[in-house]
Design goal:
Rossmann fold; about 40% helix; 2 domains; alpha/beta
């Protein structure tokens, strides 16, 4: 058995043996918007005693105690809430996760590289919190919606699919590589990620490479202002030669949370991408 599989198995066994602590008084803290959305989708919103300040969906999160930002959670505040378990994500939150564990708290990290791993995370959260039935129902619904999307995209010839650049941040210029769930979203929506050969999940990319690839679609994932986004892109030297810019196919009108949060609304994000790629609603 591979070391990573053994590690995951031992971690899961640890949580299983801890389930006797999780009764009607279960206390949950989530320091990641994506895990907050998963917890609510499993019907566990009433057990949330703390969330990060970026957790803004569903609207019920507004009434929950805030425990700092996504990047800088307040450890003292989290500890004071006496959670049975803390849900977090990886990458930027890894140092926080380590500190929480050193403080004796149980922490479960959700950091899926693809949709299959997201489904696994949802199921594990369901098992940990005694909501396995709800988790399986959610996964079934999401899988069913995905199948519909895949059937529709299967009819589009690969040569007819648009080249896409999805901009996660502008300074430095950040995009998604082939090992990311966002790359998979682009593919499922019928697009071709121009950064699919970049091995890292999220990576810097040079403006020269974007210009060379000349994507037909540009998605700005951090800005919801269509006109401003186009002006922003046009201000970059050489970008006026890019197909997406010349054909006015620079989009900044998708709710970033549908793309940047690996959670239950990821299906909506794929449908929104499809709409920008092909100029029509999915349904």
């Amino acid at each position: 058995m591979k070391p990573k599989v053994i590690e995951i198995s031992l971690l899961f066994i640890f949580f299983i043996f801890s389930l006797d602590l999780f009764g009607q008084d279960l206390r949950i803290v989530s320091i990641s918007p994506s895990t907050t959305e998963i917890i609510f989708a499993l019907g566990l919103g009433d057990f949330l005693v703390g969330v990060d300040s970026f957790s803004n969906y569903p609207p019920e999160t507004e009434k929950i105690e805030k425990v700092g930002t996504f990047s800088q959670p307040n450890l003292e505040k989290i500890i004071s809430l006496k959670p049975d378990i803390v849900f977090a994500t990886g990458l930027e939150q890894n140092p926080t996760v380590a500190r929480l564990k050193r403080a004796g708290l149980k922490v479960y990290t959700v950091d899926p590289a693809n949709i299959k791993e997201l489904f696994q995370n949802i199921l594990e959260i369901g098992k940990i919190t005694q909501r396995e039935r709800e988790a399986r129902k959610l996964i079934f619904k999401m899988s069913k919606d995905l199948s519909k999307i895949e059937r529709k995209i299967a009819n589009i010839e690969f040569s007819q699919r648009p080249k896409v650049f999805l901009e996660i941040w502008y300074s430095p210029l950040i995009t998604c590589g082939k090992n990311s769930y966002i790359d998979e979203m682009i593919s499922l929506a019928g697009g071709i990620n121009i950064a699919q050969n970049i091995k890292r999940k999220f990576s810097r990319i040079s403006q020269e490479l974007v210009i060379k690839e000349s994507p037909e679609i540009i998605i700005i994932s951090y800005m919801q202002n269509q006109e401003r986004a186009r002006e922003f892109v046009l201000s970059r030297y050489g970008w006026d030669s890019i197909t997406a810019v010349k054909k006015n196919r620079v989009y900044a009108d998708i709710n970033p949370d549908l793309i940047l949060r690996p959670g239950p609304r990821i299906i909506e994000g794929i449908k929104e991408l499809y709409k920008r790629f092909y100029g029509e609603n999915f349904d």
